[in-house]
Amino acid sequence: MDTSDRRTYLKATGSAAAALALAGCTGGGSGDNGDGDGDSGSGGESGGDVTTITPGTAPGFPPFEMKESGELVGFDIDLLAAVVAEADGYELGSWQEYSFDSLIPALTSDKIDVVAAGMSINDDRDETIDFTDPYYNADQAILVRESGDFSPAELADLSGHKVGSQSGTTGETVSKNLVEEGTLKESSYNSYDSYVFAVQDLENGNIDAIILDLPVAQTFADQRPVSIAFTYETGERYGFGVREGDDDLQSALNEGLAAVRDSGQYEELRNEWFGGSDE
């Protein structure tokens, strides 16, 4: 599948939004436990010497996870499949889709066994779940309309403007910090279930800027009339999430990730989904 085919999703605004609304789109930690495509009654199903694990994700975070013609695709989807293929004693079951802030509750309630959703490793999440070794580095970006006259150069420049981010993400944390410190009015902040909806509002002039993960911002900027005003360094690292105490699965995924890197497959997937950009 070439890059232009993969990213048709970003151009099909209306149909994408409808599909995401039905599927339960995308953002991290707490929140109501929305149902995915159906409870899998997970907890890892054992078949002989092989244990089937149920993965969970949140579409609407291109190019990490998104829907194209009803199919779940993305870097995280391909990477986890490759990692589990190298993990001794495990196989990958059917993907379950949730809103981003319902993924951790789904994991802790045994509805899924692993989270692959561009989830940043942080102390708050680490109190509830465990993470594999990091597999991607990302900072935050500030996205604005390409044809607009708003060109912020730092976070302080967002004062007096309407800002959006996705619920439960690092972008929302940054936005809420700006509200707490008085840079942003609370009424000027808009939270979204998916960055797809946030970008639609940005294009339509309902908000002036979006705070989101840099690689996702770059994907939107490649396909939509939006651009990155500046990057805000946060030193984020993405990891696959597993239940606390699931040491065997955590170790197997870490070994699988190392094998995928050593074989060169990681670089191939990165080049496919990010055009060879550095992680």
Q: In words, what does this structure look like?
A:
Strand 4 and strand 5 (71-73) form a beta hairpin. The protein is elongated. It has helices spanning 3-6, 8-11, 13-23, 75-86, 103-108, 123-126, 170-180, 195-203, 214-223, 247-263, 265-274, and strands spanning 45-47, 50-53, 55-57, 66-68, 71-73, 90-92, 96-97, 114-115, 129-131, 136-145, 163-166, 189-192, 209-213, 226-238, 241-243. It has two domains: 51-135 and 239-275, Periplasmic binding protein-like II (D-Maltodextrin-Binding Protein, domain 2, 3-Layer(aba) Sandwich); 138-235, Periplasmic binding protein-like II (D-Maltodextrin-Binding Protein, domain 2). A five-stranded mixed β-sheet has the order 7-3-8-15-9. It has a five-stranded mixed β-sheet with strand order 12-11-13-10-14, sandwiched between helices. The chain has a three-stranded mixed β-sheet with strand order 1-2-6. It has 279 residues and is an alpha/beta fold.
Order of helices and strands: HHHEEEEEHEEHEHEEEHEHEHEEHH
Integer count of domains: 2
Q: How helix-rich are the residues, as a percent range?
A: 25-40%
**Low confidence ranges:** 1-41
Task: Report, as a whole number of angstroms, the end-to-end distance.
Answer: 21 Å
The dominant shape is elongated
Derived structural class: alpha/beta
**Which CATH architecture of the largest domain?**
3-Layer(aba) Sandwich
> Overall pLDDT, averaged?
86
Estimate the strand proportion: 15-25%
Task: Please tally the helical runs, counting DSSP H or I stretches of 4 or more residues.
Answer: 11
- Kindly state the number of beta strands: 15
CATH homologous superfamily title of the largest domain: Periplasmic binding protein-like II
Organism: Halarchaeum rubridurum
Keywords: Signal
Domain Ionotropic glutamate receptor C-terminal: 52-276
Main location: other
